[in-house]
Amino acid sequence: MISNDLYKCLSNDYKEIINNKIKDIKLNKGDILFWETEPANYVFYVKEGHIKVFKTSEEGQETIFSIYKTDMFVALGVLFNQSRNYPASGSSVDDSIIYALEVNTLEEAIVSSPNSARVWIGYLNHRLTTVQTMLSDQIFADGMQRLKKMIKYFYETYPSVLQGKYIKIQVPITKQEMAETLNIRRETLSRMLSSLKEDNICECTYKEIIVQKEWILN
Length: 218
Hints:
By secondary structure, the chain is of the alpha+beta class. It contains 8 helices and 12 strands. The strands form 3 sheets. Strands 1-8-3-6 form a 4-stranded antiparallel sheet.
């Protein structure tokens, strides 16, 4: 966590307290980190791997809200919240190493100085804006527009290689998880990807996307 801006802004005294209380959690692919509605005693830091946050409907359909990569905090929405239960579930996308930080201790550390409070409030506001944009896209943007935004996010976030007029991007999730994040059926995603492949715009294989640079950057 040393290089993370949210951690760096905390006082040295509280860093020591947090470090002494941290719990290491090792997860295999698919393991649950926390369940929706269970008491939220911890927030989490991804040391290695990826964590997805999701909800499951009564019919068993899963909708993914976010994918958290290495050096990101997970479940920060429980901070300073009277409802101390997780609003969604979290599980590992791949083999992962997670740090669990006590909520009460982290809250005390955040408000211990004006600077740390300002940094954390700014980050939480940014996350809220991101969620609002996502909800707006779910309502007003069609499936293809949401897919393009997702691929662009992958390009901006994960390793990529330029290959002529195409970009090869390594992505952390499968096609099924992509569909769940876009809140569409797997069959719908397959049709959209087939259409893009026929137009020589984009091809998606297992955890890899090759996309036309001009299309994704416009």
